[in-house]
Amino acid sequence: MSTIDARLRELGIALPEAAAPVANYVAFARTGNTVHVSGQIAFGPDGLMTGRVGDEVDLATAQKAARLCAINLIAQFKAACEGDLDRVVRVVKLGGFVNADPGFTDVPKVINGASDLMVDVFGEAGRHARSAVGCSVLPLNAAVEVDAVIEVQ
Q: pLDDT tens for residues 76-95?
């Protein structure tokens, strides 16, 4: 078992299977040691977390949705690393998108749900650059979507 797999187990996180793309794109694209991972929505065991944050969805629930996006990203990282998460050298960047009510201004706080998990799982290697953007709508009315760039061995 890899060090990162052990850390996930300590945190009580079971990774899902990496989601297959649903349109004309790939789940991740590697060039050299850099992997760009397509956006992952907040889909988990209870289904998709949907709704407009600041209206139908509160901040705490939206942060949980961002964390779920991060779990789905880590599943993609594992697929990109042929099952060995210890090959992740660094989480370089996260791009966070929040299905936000026009008056909702805590978009960065929502994406903290994903950022915090990356540091919890990968330690210093999980610290990353980031964008946090409010959107008028996301695919399938998802509450949150997060994409990533990672460096791998």
A: 999 999 999 999 999 999 99
Which run of H or of E encompasses 63?
Answer: helix 59-80
CA atoms within 13 A on the CB side of 104: 25
* Apex 142 CA angle, 136 and 143, nearest 5: 70
Euclidean distance between CA atoms 113 and 42, whole angstroms: 11
The structure's pTM equals 0.97
CA atoms within 13 A on the CB side of 100: 20
Other C-beta atoms closer than 10 Å to the C-beta of 19 total 15
All structural domains of the chain, each given as residue ranges with its CATH number in brackets, are 3-13+31-152 (3.30.1330.40)
